[in-house]
Amino acid sequence: MALHTLSLSVLSEKLRRREISATELTEAVVSHIERTEPQIGAFITLTPELARQMAKEADARLAEGEWNPLLGIPMAIKDNISTRGVRTTCASRILENYVPPYDATVVARLKQAGAVIVGKANMDEFAMGGSTEYSAFHPTRNPRDLERVPGGSSGGSAAAVASDMAVAALGSDTGGSIRQPAAYCGVVGLKPTYGRVSRYGLIAYASSLDQIGPITKTVEDCALVLQVIAGKDPMDATSVDVPVPDYREALRPDVKGLRLGVPKEFFEGVHPEVAQRVQEAIAALEEAGAEVREVSIPMAEQGLAMYYILAPAECSSNLARYDGVRYGLRVGAEKGHIGMMEATRAQGFGKEVIQRIIIGTYALSSGYYDAYYLKAQKGRTLLRQEFERVFQEVDVLVCPTAPTPPFKLGELVDDPVAMKLMDVLTIPVNLAGLPGLSVPCGLAEGLPVGLQIIGKPFDEPTVLRVGYTWEQIREAPSQTP
Predict the structure, then answer these.
(1) Which residues are catalytic?
(2) Is residue 378 part of a domain?
(3) For residues 215, 216, 218 and 220, what is the CA-based torsion angle, rounded to 10 degrees?
């Protein structure tokens, strides 16, 4: 079997045994990218020479007897995560030529572990979108069906992993941007608990919601990447000083005695085949020994409305820094400071970003703050309390990741409400700051479906355990793939 098609855990073991070299593996991935990328468009910036240099360094470390699971593993990084000396654009014209002078903490940790960076993955501009069609450079296609979207905003990361152009990838998740593309592309994606992974170096969209996480081929691979990037960071005041457990230890195919909650609100309006695949997975987990019970989270139905007040409000504040003065695009300098700022932002930001800035500014403006922003914050608190109540009865929640299979390219671009509804099942998890995992769950209309597993704060081990158990059930010879 070709090296680039293997999972991280398998490749890591081959590297440990010196059956292959990091250089050999990297060359296999780079060659596959050259053949495949023109059809998929998963990357904004490719870094083959950097990858070769990093692979050479990994081989030197392996030769000295050093080993860890990510040493020598080719990975893609979403293009809103800062990489020193490598262009980081956020898929926006306003940062088209921006080269960060520093690494994000997650990138520094990957480098320390010896991972190999093959490129910066495409995304929706400033992570605002659910299809990777809002990139200023090009859309990304779903490797499972080139006429379909890969999801968003981490669509490039998910497509790179699904098409074997990266063994694993990092994405960011503000309202579902890791889990939804993972579901659409048939791979595994984890949004960790808010504060579990440092956001230092993540170019901000909505700071109280953003979280970096892994996109991988298997649940075990997901645990291995999380192990490296998780943990307190003094550079990020929102990262939490909670001990990082051994996530690999949680990976045992055993759900006996675990209580799985099925939130009824998360099945309303879901495509019938998607709902059926998820219900089949829940039934299989119940047969494996889990206790299943229906639960209710009424405020989840208001999640979308709350999110599209809070996230744009934070984005209008965060994106105020792109003014043509400090870094990035500068247009119309001859028009004076205000004229230059207006021209730079008008030319540098795309339509979706401008729309969200305007909505957020409106929600924060005098006379509307109490009616919209404050009310949404109160609703968010009530939603979090409902999750806390439900988690007194169950250990995890299980539901679909996305309400439909992946839609066609261009199908929803001019229908912003329908586009935003694609995140209706993932957004409540961000509002409550909880961990959420999407694992492949069969097919609907011949396209991938994701099973979403939601856990208590910092209980990624249980979430991964349930995902791993389902993965083992699904891969058993007696099961239909």
Answers:
(1) 78, 153, 177
(2) no
(3) -80
CA 319 centroid distance within chain:
21
Tell me, what's the pLDDT at 130? 96
- The H or E element that residue 148 is part of is none
The verdict on 272 and 212 lying in the same domain is no
pLDDT tens digits along 148-176? 999 999 999 999 999 999 999 999 999 99
**Same domain, yes or no, for 11 and 140?**
yes
- Of 209, 222, 174, 176, the closest CA to residue 439 belongs to 222
Q: Which amino acid is at 384?
A: R
357 in the same domain as 218? no
CB count in 10 Å sphere of residue 240: 15
For 84-122, how does the pLDDT look when each residue is reduced to its tens digit (9 = 90+)?
999 999 999 999 999 999 999 999 999 999 999 999 999
Alpha-carbon span 60 to 87, nearest angstrom: 27
Run of H or E including 191:
strand 188-191
Q: Which domain holds residue 274?
A: 259-298+384-475
pLDDT at 54 over 80: yes
Residues 6+ apart with CB under 8 A from 226: 190, 192, 197, 213, 214, 247, 460
- Provide CB contacts within 8 A for 453, sequence distance 6+: 396, 397, 398, 436, 437, 438, 439, 463, 466, 467, 470
State residue 426 phi and psi, 5-degree precision: -105, -30
- Whole-number Å distance between alpha carbons of 39 and 30: 15
Per-residue model confidence (pLDDT) at position 480:
41
